């Protein structure tokens, strides 16, 4: 028959083994999907939003006012108001009548006129050569953002005390 201290030693060893094993983390199954060679070679992200419609420009009387994302509106910046694109996203707007393009940053909500798809700052309207007419048919395209991978850095040794 086993002595009381021997049973206690075995029990402790089993308990320590179980605790050690429970702390081990197993690797979850990989969900990595290998890209086809032509996809992997592409560096241009696919469009995430395409829209065609009437654009207008806005700003007279709004210079220096706060936009929907908290920026101060400046007619000289290449910005725009859109009803649903994420704040801070970049959109390429093409004037369908003359082919001119401009890249704007969405920093406001609008337009507040029915049947319009985007309101452009004065500077953006100038780039599209649409200020005189006031409105123009445009195509809006946004691209997915490239996610930057964090740079792995070696840990700096802590200073000796």
TrEMBL record:
Q: Which Pfam families match?
A: DPBB_1
| PROSITE patterns in alphabetical order | PROKAR_LIPOPROTEIN
Q: Which EC class heads this enzyme's classification?
A: lyase
EC number(s)?
4.2.2.-
Q: Which UniProt keywords apply?
A: Cell membrane, Cell wall biogenesis/degradation, Lipoprotein, Lyase, Membrane, Palmitate, Signal
Q: Where is the signal peptide?
A: 1-22
| Location of region: Disordered | 26-91
> How is it placed in the membrane, per its record?
Lipid-anchor
Looking up SUPFAM superfamilies in the UniProt record yields: Barwin-like endoglucanases
Q: Name one GO cellular component term.
A: plasma membrane
Share an example GO biological-process annotation for this protein.
peptidoglycan metabolic process
Q: Where in the cell is it found?
A: Cell membrane
- Major localization listed first in the record, in broad terms: membrane
The GO terms this record gives for MF are: lytic endotransglycosylase activity
User: What region holds the RlpA-like protein double-psi beta-barrel domain?
Assistant: 51-140
Which HAMAP family did the record assign? RlpA
- Give the UniProt family note: Belongs to the RlpA family.
NCBIfam families in alphabetical order? rlpA (TIGR00413)
Functional description taken from the UniProt entry: Lytic transglycosylase with a strong preference for naked glycan strands that lack stem peptides.
- What protein name does the entry list? Endolytic peptidoglycan transglycosylase RlpA
